[in-house]
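To illustrate the input format used throughout this study, we show a single complete record. The first block contains the structure-token representation of the backbone; no residue identities are included at this stage. The design step must infer an amino acid for every position from geometry alone.
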């Protein structure tokens, strides 16, 4: 087996040729999935490009694929591994590609928070919801406690369902997605409390927890909280006729000043559906914003600001080629069965 280092010094043409040969050899026994935030060189080699939910669905659907290579971050590869089932293998080209948002809530912290709610006799009235961008353990926690997993596309439906089941919901790990969704669903600010895992009782008063309808976890995606009101103002000054669409992981003030907000799939469709010649400013990860521009040359698609996800950026074409050539055990993603069952 050639070392990873030897792939790092190969030229791009050679890497692309090797990848094409491997894909031709394996045909539909191999599935390469790439998240929209990946670099162009990775996206060009993928069978499917999409958001985390769409990619997990592809892993589940393409039953002929015995080998799945997931170019994204760890929680996404775990979700794909869970949905792919036992007989198929999922690999990640760079195992260091984690997600700081997912890391904002670990299972010990969430269980400690839940135990506090139990002691206060509140947990029986609460539906836990975890965003897709979380570890498999958190997804299993929700499965075990009558909760659900949501995506940015269906967060609103998940909240509505939860509040039809019980009086309250506990949303983790992204505060902004939770807050923006709750506010869009006409939940009052006074009905929302913020749980800070680094503080005693989450920094919440007993009365506030008892009265709240929505408990939000204090977690964030630094790629999306990078966008500010000043970015919006200067975009509007420069392009008065523009449309601005942002991801709901952005801060509430940014979302409020934009023309639209929604998931990765929503943003893609928003640009596609806009009239030719329109200037559309996109507040999401830079690789995706740039690609939307390339895919829609009849429109002027610009990033709200340059915000790169360093973890998505970790996967290089050398890493991908190395994994495809060797399928190293060390790069395999596996989720323990007891977690997968509940997730
Ligand atoms: S963009 Fe944000 S949520 Fe997505 S992988 Fe990067 S840090 Fe995580």
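Output of the design step:
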């Amino acid at each position: 087996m050639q070392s990873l280092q030897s792939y790092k010094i190969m030229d791009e043409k050679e890497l692309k040729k090797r990848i094409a040969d491997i894909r031709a050899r394996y045909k539909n026994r191999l599935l390469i999935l790439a998240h929209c935030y990946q670099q162009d060189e990775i996206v060009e080699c993928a069978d499917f490009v999409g958001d985390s939910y769409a990619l997990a669905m592809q892993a589940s659907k393409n039953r002929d694929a015995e080998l799945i290579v997931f170019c994204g971050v760890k929680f996404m590869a775990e979700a794909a591994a869970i949905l792919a089932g036992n007989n198929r293998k999922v690999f990640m080209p760079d195992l260091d590609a984690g997600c700081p948002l997912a890391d904002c809530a670990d299972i010990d912290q969430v269980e400690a928070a839940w135990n506090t709610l139990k002691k206060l006799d509140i947990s029986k009235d609460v539906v836990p919801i975890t965003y897709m961008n979380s570890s498999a353990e958190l997804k299993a926690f929700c499965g075990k406690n009558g909760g659900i997993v949501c995506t940015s596309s269906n967060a609103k439906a998940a909240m509505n369902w939860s509040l039809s089941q019980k009086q309250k919901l506990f949303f983790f790990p992204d505060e902004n997605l939770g807050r923006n969704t709750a506010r869009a669903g006409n939940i009052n600010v006074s009905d929302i409390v913020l749980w800070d895992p680094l503080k005693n009782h989450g920094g919440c008063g007993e009365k506030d927890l008892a009265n709240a309808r929505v408990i939000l976890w204090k977690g964030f995606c630094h790629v999306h909280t990078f966008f500010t009101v000043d970015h919006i103002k200067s975009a509007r000054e420069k392009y008065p006729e523009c449309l601005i669409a942002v991801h709901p992981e952005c801060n509430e003030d940014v979302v409020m000043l934009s023309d639209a907000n929604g998931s990765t799939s929503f943003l893609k469709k928003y640009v596609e559906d806009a009239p030719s010649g329109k200037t559309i400013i996109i507040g999401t990860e830079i690789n995706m914003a740039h690609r939307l521009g390339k895919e829609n040359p009849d429109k002027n698609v610009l990033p709200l600001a340059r915000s790169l996800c360093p973890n998505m950026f970790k996967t290089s074409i050398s890493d991908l080629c190395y994994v495809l050539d060797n399928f190293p055990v060390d790069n395999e993603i596996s989720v323990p069965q007891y977690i997968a069952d509940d997730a």
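Structural context for interpreting the output: The first helix runs from residue 4 to 8. The pocket of iron/sulfur cluster is lined by residues 37, 73, 99-101, 133, 221, 223, 285, 309, 311-312 (CB under 6 Å).
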